[in-house]
Amino acid sequence: MPAGTRSGAGIRPEPRRAVRRPPRPSAPGGAPRRPLVTGRAVLLAGLVLVLLLTLAGPVRQFLAGRAELTRLAAEGTALDQRVEQLQQQLERQADPAYTARQARERLAYVLPGDRLVVVVDGEAVEGDAGTVPEPVVGELPWYEALLQSVAVADG
Residue 11 in 3-state DSSP? Predict the structure, then answer.
């Protein structure tokens, strides 16, 4: 090394040369091509998503409320029909002829002078209205037969 020179002391680095990249294909018309997703598009999509998430709960409650109102309206209609049926039944029961007919059919009531025919175990039993057939002699009522069997078993 020559005297008075330092290693690397007066040497400057060469300036960098710009590397040329091949040009990007441009859109028709010669305008530069834009990226598919921009920052504004991402921000807009995020805002729309937040808005949808915010409105999802109230919309769901609104739809549930509408369904509940529909159900209650149907239930009210059914109750109105039931009230109408009960009003008709009340009017029928206020009629004395209907009451007499039901008493004859359901309770086996008879008017004085009518004959009552009751079929028990396939046997026809006749009697006047208001009279009960007498038990056959030798046959005890069930409760007396039960007490008698207990007395016999006791000894």
Answer: coil
As a whole number of angstroms, the distance between CA 128 and CA 110 comes to 10
Beta carbons of 151 and 143 less than 8 angstroms apart: no
pLDDT by 10s per residue, the chain, length 155: 566 555 655 677 777 777 777 666 555 666 677 778 888 999 999 999 999 999 999 999 999 999 999 999 999 999 999 999 999 999 999 999 999 888 888 888 888 888 887 777 766 556 555 555 565 667 888 898 899 899 999 87
**pTM of the predicted structure, to 2 decimals:** 0.40
- Dihedral sign, CA of 35, 37, 43, 44? positive
First to last CA, the chain: 148
121 and 110 Cβ atoms separated by less than 8 Å: no
Helix (H) or strand (E) holding 47: helix 39-94
